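Fresh eyes needed here. Kindly weigh in on this sequence plus structure tokens:
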Amino acid sequence: MKKLIFAAALVLPLLTGCFLIERNTAILWTDIPEVAAYVEIFNASQTDYRVELVYAEQPADYHRLTSDSAPDIVIAEGLASNSTIPAFEPLDKMIEDELFDPSILYPDLYKLGCREEIPYVLPVSFNIPAIMYKRDNLSKETEGIIISPDELKSEAEIFNGRTTDEFRVKGFAPAWTPEFLLYNAFITGSEFSETIDGSLIWNETKLIDSIDFSRDWTENINSGFQEEEDFTITYCYDPGYKLLNAGRIGFYYTTLRDFFTIPAEDRASLDFKWLGSEKSIPVSEDIIYVGIPEKSGKQKAAREFIMWLLDGETQKTLLDSSQFKRSRGFGICGGLSSVHIVNELVMPEYYKLLIGNVPPIEYFDFPDNLPSYWMSARADVIIPWLEDQSSIEPEMGTLTGILKTWTLQEQKK
């Protein structure tokens, strides 16, 4: 009998411990690779809660987020759209109870996850467009941390003058990187945004102005469509950074994330400026958010993880770990942190080219709320349409018509 009592005494704490672990374990959905390391560090840092990571395709899908199999935490793009926000639990109690201070976040970025001033999802990280170049390719006329499309056009024209009979060069062509066409449209004022019913709207006049700008560049700076195409086919078969290092081109579009994933030895002679206009830099639309679905049954554990993730000291630990493991990833979830002091004081410790290059808070032009399908429409319709309209003989119809056809096809899937 004594042996049975002793055995029971041993088993009971184990069963109790297993029960507590299960009760305090939150399921996290994401499609972002860096999050796996964050979960591992969180679980190792304390014993009260655990997070179990599940890789999920389309983690921002409203129907999945409102199903009985919904997770407790989601980290993904597209969570702040009007069609997705209703799936999430309000996070205002975290703020009312002074468990989280939203002032540590970029104010305009924080507002994107709010409805009627109540936060439903919180931003984690974001990316911004840039132009990279070899340091001796830039004239002294372009100063500051931003280069505008007009300034880039002038710099590219100057670089074109380096062409000789023995070595052809080209400063820049808008068509080399289709994303440039999109961000030029943003800078021009095309103002893509979401209506209350989830439709996509934009400023048609400004969008056409951006296309005219690109076509003029090709025709008058790069000596015409045929010349630009011949040069591209003949010489532009290597990655942009290799073409820059070889002196074949003067400038190339990139993003902060992509620039810092170039091998260190290949970007040793390269520098960058943010693509934008005076004191304004368009932020990429693939902003990463974190939220707690209404269906979550482990909200306390979920809140603890979110507060931990968005803490400045935590993010320094995450950056330390990434550097120690020599990860090729950049920053927090592949971008700048939503916590502005991390970008201003911590990031430059790890990425020396950010010293003196982190934009002030007021420089960031965060996008308006966009539909949950924006990134798919962007890749399948909008960028291909901009490429077509910027070519020698545009063949596609209006963006409105093509987008309508695409939407109908997507609804049938």
Residues 23-127+285-365 form a domain with the D-Maltodextrin-Binding Protein; domain 2 fold (CATH 3.40.190.10).
